Structures are given as structure tokens and as C-alpha cells.
Amino acid sequence: MTERVQYGSLQIAKELDDLLVEEILPGLKVTRDEFWSSFNEIVDEFVPRNNSLISQRENLQEKIDKWHLDRKGQNHNHEEYKTFLKEIGYWVEEANDFQITTSQVDPEISEIAGPQLVVPVMNARFSLNAANARWGSLYDALYGTDMISEEGGAERGGTYNPVRGDKVIEFSKTFLNKTIPLSQGTFQEVTSFQVHEGNLEVTLSDQSKVGLKDNSKFIGYTGEPDNPSGILFKNNKLHIEIQVDREDSVGKDDAAGIKDVLIESAVTTIQDLEDSIAAVDAEDKVIAYRNWLGLMKGNLQTEVEKKGKKFTRKLNSDREYTAPDGSKIKLHGRALMLNRNVGHLMTNSSILLKDGSEIPEGIMDAFITTAAAIHDFKSKGNSRTNSVYIVKPKMHGPDEAAFTDLIFEKVENVLGLKKYTIKIGIMDEERRTTVNLKECIRAVKNRVVFINTGFLDRTGDEMHTSMEAGPMIKKGDMKSSKWISAYENNNVDVGLACGFSGIAQIGKGMWAAPDKMADMIVQKINHVKSGANCAWVPSPTAATLHALHYHQVDIFSKQKELKKRGAAKINDILSIPIADRPNWSMEEITKELENNAQGILGYVVRWVDQGVGCSKVPDINNVGLMEDRATLRISSQHIANWLHHGICSKEQVLKTMKKMAKIVDNQNIKDPALKGYPAYQTMSYNYDKSVAFKAACELVFHGRNQPSGYTEPILHLNRLLKKI
Hints:
The protein is α/β, with parallel strands linked by helices. It contains 25 helices and 26 strands.
């Protein structure tokens, strides 16, 4: 049983109260009594509002279900459907045009376009790696991934392969030629660098001396001017550093002594309290909050073992350079960190209310994560503007956005912060938010710094909202469906129309395959070309490689172009992706079920049994994919939809689940990603006793009845059962 302390009508887990009293509040202007007393009052006022908003979701869903059921067998009348959505308050009328007025925004959000790394904050090592991913080695990123072909003797292996190394160097110098071209010649011809009278002077193999085509891109150096150890460049507001060391194992064989090219990579990172973690009780929440606090205090560290060696990982310091005029330059050594709180739906037993019910988790997150972030205000290790950046997921429409705004205002009042200190990121991942995006932004126009699209959650909600409309198209076909492209374009269109460019981020979703970097470099540039000034990546390596795209495209010029195009059509956004007279073969149905079932089981068994909220989970083809609850939502809703419409039977699905459980077991038993977690317990041949297997089945067979198709209620319940 959790030990609790009573404050007013609240029963607070002692470990949470201890964290607050002993680690978070010291140094702040608010006492324990002031904090809990104010929190108690606000909870009494806000919990009924929170519950009312959740009830509104359910009421709207019931009306939409009935609308479809009443017209079962009839052709879909789109105009009648749109009128209906307005009548019930699902789709609200747009008011006048406006521009956001958010101020005190750090340049990493307002001025610099680049990759955004998302990591589970419960894992200190991952959190530190992400924070330190502001700078990444291009040589390492290329050498260790499929970006460099293994043909011609360039295989990856345990020892350094000079053939592969040469390919890495050639790629890197070609990138430099394109990004910071010399006035004459190429970087392949460079033999030395000097700084002379404030200019970069480059000696080529023919002994000629040249400069840059655009000398303004040279902004600093380290070491001595006549023999610099680092040369700093800036392109599209992103930095590149050429590192020189003729004693280095790589530099000694390079004509110019270049040992590496550093790329400014993860400009921002989201430290996640939501979809990528498994936090179900006070014990879990305290771990997550403490890691976030350590990041904000700048003292988070963890012991890491790599290649048999143990060392302590800490946060990187800022980077220092000499400017061409001799003055000093200091650059941020870490990514600007945002915190993703949970949404309005979930509750947590960390705090019990006067009626014994659990605290709405999002309200608790807002208070605790903001209080922890105040510790950064003195050191300015994160925000230079003393802002707190909170990403808010899974909001449905303007009323919920306005409610979040009000919560943040109350937090500011309690903690003695200036109004609008807390900035908000809107996850555009629910259908009611998409169709009302302009009004959602209006509700938070004084503090919004971020909107983005999330294909998987958004698809999950699309399926759940229109569950009664008919059987959905196959999951793989969703990406090419009409509503998806309209949804993606609408997010950019609305953001630009509301004045985001130069103030706030417009983001795009995750690249889920961390081992397929060659594919990423081909495909993900489309996120930049679409007008997004940030896009999600799953690892520091991916951040370094994706950063190359932002050197190819001047995103702010691109946004000016896109602002002139016609806006995405609401008719397309509201088109329902149901199959027109489905006639899939049994083979097609089986393949779809197996793909979905394997993904569900692969993720759920780690979540429930191991407490792993995000990891590289092998798919049905043994390709490692970064999975989180969004992936689970779409897969479980898809099977639930096909079950409901008779595309498959319960017996067929159960048989498939059992078959896929065996495959998942074989994939997991020896997976090094699970090292350090409890010993893996197989699901197969133990179906009736496996908590994870039963949870996976529940997500499918009861998926239609889950609120908005979310997976959290079932996952949390079963994880708690597993922890007992």
C-alpha cells in the first residue's frame, strides 16, 4: 500500500510530497503549505471542469455513432454530415483572422529550424543523450548507419574499416562543398586552414589560397588563428564545425587534418511524460519528475557502461569559440528542452481527492513540471528567456485548449510567475482539434509556441470517431488517403495564417525506423519542404542526419511561398476512410490482422511486463520500429473496426493473436534492448496467465468501447496488476 500524507482534502503519496518538499520547492518562493493549499483549491474547482470536458467527448461520440447508424446502408451525404457536426458543436464557426502574440520565445523555437528529438524522461540515460544531442558527429552518424553502402569492401564491423571511413569522409566533404562552398576548389583539395585578418583562409593542394564563396558563413574558431583546431560555420541559422587534429587516428590520414565534422542537430527535444513512458503510480511519476528536475537544475547524471567501460554521463556544457573579430562566442551545448505532459483523460493515484478518486494527471503534471523548471531560471541552462515549454497532447477542440490555458494561468499564479511564462505546444492529433485548429490556437494565442501533426494518433481517432460509418481501409493505405494529406497541409496552412513563422514551431511526425537512415534521408526532406520548421526523430544519430535537410532548404523562405497557396479543403479533411465495397481476399485479411496483432503484442508485452513505454520493437519482418502508444492505438482500433463490421471474426482474431504471440516471444527472448529489465516472460503456451497477452486481447476486443480509442486505461490497469 502507498504511504500517504493528508493535506486538506488531498491524500498525497508520501514519496511525491517528499520530492516536492526536499528537492523541488527549496529555492522557490512558495512553501509546502502554500503549494498544497493552493493546489487543493484549484483541484476542487477544476476537476469538475475536467470531467465535464471528458463527458462532452463521450456525448459527441454517441451522437456521431447514432448519426451513422441511422443512415446505415445509405450513401454518405457529405453536406448533411458537415451541417450535423456544426449543429452538435463538434465543428465550431471560425471567428475573425488573428496573429499569435507569444513573446519571450527562445530562438531555438522562433528562429532556428531543425530536428526535434522525443525521448522518455523516465530513462535518465535517454534523457541525457537527447539533451546532449544538440551537437552530433557526422562521421559517426554516417559510419554507423546504412547511409553509407557496404559495397566494395565498406562493411561495418567491430574494427575500423578504412574503406568505409573514406566513403564517410567523401560524403562529408561533398556536403561541405554544397553547404559552405569555397570561392574556388573543393574541400577534397584542402590541406590547411588559417584565420587571417578576420577571414578564413584555406590552402589547397596546389598551394593556392582561397576563401569561402560567402565569407559571412564563417563565424568563429577554436585554437590558434594560424592553426585552428575547430572552424565554425553558420548556414540557415544552423552551425557546422570542422574539427582539425593531425594526431587523431582519422585526422592523421586526412590532407587537411580533419578528424570530424560536427553538426548542430537536435535543436529542441521533448522530454516525454506521456506516450513513450509507462508511469502508472507515484513510484513511476517520482522517477519521471526527478529526472526532469535534474535536467532543469543541470545536475542529472547516470552511470553508463559502453564496450565494457563504465563512465558517468552528464549534461554537456556550452561551447566557446573566438569570433573573426577576436571577441568570444558562446553557443548552447544542449537542446532546448520541452516537457510533454499527459492529456486531460488520464488520472493517477499519486494524489487521491476527497471522494477517493484519482487526480487528473494533467493538472498534477502542470504544477510539478513547472515548479521543477523554475530551477533553470538562474542558470539559464535551458531557456534563456525564462520560459517553460509544455507540450499538451490529445486535446479535443477549442474548449479543451482554453481549459489548458486556464490551468497554466493558475499554475503561474501559485508559483509567482509572470503571466504567459508557461508556453504551450498543441498536438494536432485528434479530429476535433484538426477541424477547429484555428480556434484552438486562438484559445492559447498568447502562449502557443508549437503545433504538430501526429499521423498515428490522428488515424486512431479518425477510426474511432467514424467507427459506425463502415469498415476502414487497410492501415498501409491510410498514408495515401485524401484526408491525411489535407490534414497535414491544413496544419501548416493554419499555423502560417496565424503568424507562426518567426515565432513558433510547425512540426511534423516521427521517423519510426531508426535503423533505416538511408530511407529517412530520402523521405524526410519532404517534412522540411512541407513548411515544417521542426520534425521528430527517434535518436541522436537520426537528428544529425535529418539536420542535413535544413541546410538544403531555407525553411522560412519556403513558408513564405506556402503561405500563397490555397488552403487545405475541409471536405477532404472530413472525408471518411472507409472501404468502398470491400472485397479483400482471406489472404489479404489474414496478412493485415497478423501485421496489426504482432505490433500490438510486441508493444504491450514490454509495456505491461517490463514497464517499457517506448523502445525499438521488431515488426513482423524483424525491422526495428520505435513504438509508442500512438502505434498501439491505430493497430487496436483497426482490428476493432474490422471485427465490428464482420471483416473478420473473434475466433479468427484470437487465433491470430496466439500465433503472433509465439513470434513476439521469439523476437524478445534474446533482445538486447531488454537488458536491465526483468527477465522476459513468454506469452505463448501461457495465454490464460499472461497479463500482457490478456491486455493485448482486451485492447482489441473492447477497443470500440475505449474512450476515443485510447489505450491508456487498459494498459495502466494491467501494468498495475503486474506490479502487485
